[in-house]
Design a protein that fits this description.
24% strand, five-stranded mixed sheet, single chain, alpha/beta, 275 residues
Length: 275
């Protein structure tokens, strides 16, 4: 009889403990977002959450300490400061960025990924004013220089999947019947690895990115030619998020006026082209 009472008492205590734990868990406060003093809604209070795809130096990449840095990062930091919050970066596949799904799902507030503004992307994203003029580059291993796409007939050319560089090359190959095998890779690092190990004869991608790679790997890769495609980068927000779009545009405009933009450009990109 005593044993049964003890068993019942133990069971009751255990149940009470479970209820207490459940109560504590149930009371845990979930961050459902917040609004800045200027009226910009954020997915996480006190933080401007940025979706990007790493690595894509000099726009965004990790430094030796593991911190994400770059031209895009520095510009979005200006936006965060304007809003009175800090920037937090989420590394995510580029497909989710350009399709708008990451912004729509609340994964982030803004996309900053060296992303070209296109009519197709405008259907699912709202872009800031352009903040960078981009050019495509043809990169090859040193000693195997070519100047035109025509010289790559019968060879393999690498591109990063889902990018305007891939679109441009596919269009050129089809239009001119170049006889080039276009190989698509999931990210820039994979393209660069393929080129440096001679898995492909050449690669096409954004010029500043390949200039950065050449600088970091002297004597191994060269930029053999450039294609002026008239592309411009923009930061993206969820469709209809006019408040954040406006804040981004104002921060970029202010940076251009007070000289901050030119300083950041010099730091991360290099000499600014003459306008």
């Amino acid at each position: 009889m005593v044993a049964r009472r003890r068993t019942r008492k133990a069971a009751a205590l255990a149940a009470a403990a479970v209820m207490m734990i459940g109560g504590v868990t149930g009371c845990a406060k979930k961050d459902t977002g917040g609004t800045t003093a200027s009226g910009v809604a954020l997915v996480k209070s006190g933080v401007l959450t940025t979706c990007t795809h790493l690595p894509y130096a000099p726009f965004q990449s990790k430094d030796q300490t593991g911190k994400v840095v770059g031209f895009d990062v520095a510009l979005i930091d200006l936006v965060a400061t304007k809003l009175g919050v800090t920037q937090a970066i989420v590394d995510t596949p580029f497909e989710g960025i350009k399709s708008g799904s990451d912004l729509n799902s609340g994964k982030c507030d803004v996309a900053a990924a060296g992303m070209t503004i296109t009519d197709e992307r405008k259907k699912v994203l709202d872009f800031s004013e352009p903040y960078f003029d981009a050019t495509q580059a043809l990169s090859v291993v040193t000693g195997h220089e070519v100047k035109t796409l025509e010289e790559l007939k019968g060879k393999r050319l690498g591109v990063q999947g889902g990018t305007t560089g891939e679109e441009y090359i596919n269009a050129q190959v089809k239009e001119k019947n170049l006889g080039i095998t276009v190989v698509s890779y999931k990210d820039l690092a994979a393209v660069q690895q393929a080129l440096s190990t001679n898995q492909i004869a050449a690669a096409v991608g954004d010029l500043p990115v390949w200039n950065e790679y050449v600088k970091a790997n002297p004597g191994k890769i060269v930029v053999a030619a450039g294609f002026n495609t008239g592309e411009q980068y923009g930061f993206a927000v969820k469709k209809g998020n006019a408040e954040l779009q406006k804040a981004i545009n104002e921060a970029i405009a202010a940076a251009r006026t007070d000289g901050t933009y030119d300083k950041l450009y010099s730091t991360w990109i290099g000499e600014k082209p003459a306008s």
